[in-house]
Design a protein that fits this description.
single chain, 142 residues, mainly beta, Chitinase A, domain 3, Thrombin, subunit H, 2 domains, 5-stranded antiparallel β-sheet, 4-stranded antiparallel β-sheet, 2 helices, 9 strands, 8% helix, cytoplasm, PPIase_dom_sf, isomerase, rotamase, chaperone
Length: 142
């Protein structure tokens, strides 16, 4: 039976290939709720849950294309340092939020600060990485 289009609740733990945990619904103390196959989740997670039954647990490894995509070099942007307030206080590796015109703020990781410019990586922090999820389907509602 397919869960496509249904509201589901899952508990999950996400790890990288080296075993590092990057996320867990258990740590937050509540399952994740979403509409299955509605584009609210990364594609591979949605597909994994689509045919699960309540109480079932499965482990899936997702390649970048089924997760947050490959790292896109075009999303690494260099800005003139004069356009970046407090550029001298930005630690390399820190994620800050930028805004372009009237758009909503979006995350960008500081990758380089020079005398003339600041470089930001706007790829998702997990882009280019394979992800492993241990997923338990907790509830399904029509």
């Amino acid at each position: 039976m397919s869960n496509e289009g249904k509201k589901v609740k899952t508990h999950y733990k996400g790890t990288l290939d080296d075993g590092t945990q990057f996320d867990s619904s258990y740590d937050r103390g509540e399952p994740l709720e979403f509409t299955c196959m509605a584009g609210q989740m990364i594609p591979g997670f949605d597909k994994a849950v689509r045919d699960m039954e309540v109480g079932e647990t499965k482990t899936v490894r997702l390649e970048p294309a089924e997760a947050y995509g490959e790292h896109n070099p075009a999303l690494v942007q260099k800005m003139p340092r004069s356009n970046v307030p407090n550029a001298d206080q930005l630690p390399i590796g820190q994620t800050i939020y930028l805004r372009s015109g009237s758009s909503a703020p979006f995350p960008a990781r500081v990758v380089e600060v020079t005398d003339d410019s600041v470089s930001f990586d706007m790829n998702h922090e997990l882009a280019g990485q394979a992800l492993t999820f241990e997923i338990t389907l907790v509830e399904v509602a029509d």
